């Protein structure tokens, strides 16, 4: 079982700072040459996928050629990706004057207008956004938020005849909850919070801390306690105060959109939207976490690490930021540094720091060390069977060869969290891979796929279980669909090769195994996988699943 199987147990992302682009000589170099040099530097950084460096160079280019739409267009996109709000705004105004502003640029202008309390300008921009369509789903919510400032207040209503209605309605509870908290409506906020929880809305750590503090001031200590459970990183710190403003409302809308898009194959678009969320409310550390995740999913480890490092130790989001920061180090190949940092943090031996250490050790292949760290974390918890930690511990045990110890823990996880798709997938795949109680393994994996349909890892697991049960013909279309969704995944391609071989399609099987080798990275254990797949290319699988 590879790390892909436990990727959903931990947050994954982040990158390290790079040197600044060399400043252009301000001496006697002709302006045209300076402009060209800046543009070339910017394009090279853009091509290398380093948006911060590209943005710095484009800032020089746009200063030397402020009216060029081409420079402004490229400067705008790299400024957004790189997190340079001032440059993005400057370029956006140039593009707007030229009639070339992209749709997300209008959202940036809206964020800027609200940050300066220009409510009439903001109203006009919301109308423009709805007219242009791309981000129209934010219009009913932002109109409502602006009415809180410009009066009279109108609650958000999603027009059913609008094309964005089905999409926007999913965000209504959260937006109404934040507005009711802003207005001091304790009863209304409590009711909406219950609705949001029923819908499965997941709140970020800073957002939970802010809502907990607000409910406490409104006399709902019970809801404050319920929300504060995941916000312990903010002990001793002042609660965030910007969570109930129009800017915060826009940040949450854009964050939800980015979360819906993350991992869907458009990394730059997702990162751009996450950046816009952070631009709307620069004090929102949950948005910074989202930027970090989006950057890492897009392969920009340095960008993600840089963003994670902006989150202060006082923040409720600090622990999550450290998790992502360590993941970014590992992603960038700085595994030794990641483990050193994790050990340093675990010198304060609370449950969260010990889990961080376990996460880092898992990522570097030290599963036995991770078992020790997770066990120590478990000893410090009031709830010894908290499902997420139990799943991490069980996964580390299974990865270290202790399946007999891991399985009872996994059973306890699905007993406590019967709708946890990661847990169902983990135990179902582990059983199937061992040929153990295959009917039950298939049933568990079918449940995981019903809960999280079209997740390539879960589809692959179910296909693999069917193959192990002698149903290669039923397994093949599942594995093929998983490969289509994740074409570079080494494990899924290896499974496809095994199934094709079992069906007598040996030429295609070898093509799949070659794709598996091409998808291998340098993670722990990859050498063993490479040797195994290479043997299959030469001799075929050592064993083939029985056919029914």
Account of the 3D structure:
With 548 residues, this protein is mainly alpha-helical. Among the domains are: 334-417, Serine Threonine Protein Phosphatase 5, Tetratricopeptide repeat, CATH 1.25.40.10; 420-548, Tetratricopeptide repeat domain (Serine Threonine Protein Phosphatase 5, Tetratricopeptide repeat, Alpha Horseshoe), CATH 1.25.40. 68% of the residues lie in helices and 0% in strands. It contains 29 helices and no strands. The chain has helices at 31-47, 51-64, 69-82, 85-97, 103-115, 119-132, 139-150, 165-168, 172-183, 186-199, 205-217, 221-228, 246-261, 267-280, 285-297, 301-308, 318-331, 335-345, 351-363, 367-379, 387-399, 403-416, 421-433, 438-451, 456-468, 472-485, 490-502, 506-519, 526-539. The longest helix has 17 residues, at 31-47. It is globular, with a radius of gyration of 25 Å. It starts with 30 loop residues before the first helix and ends in a 9-residue tail after the last helix. Mean pLDDT is 87; it is low at 3-27 and 230-234.
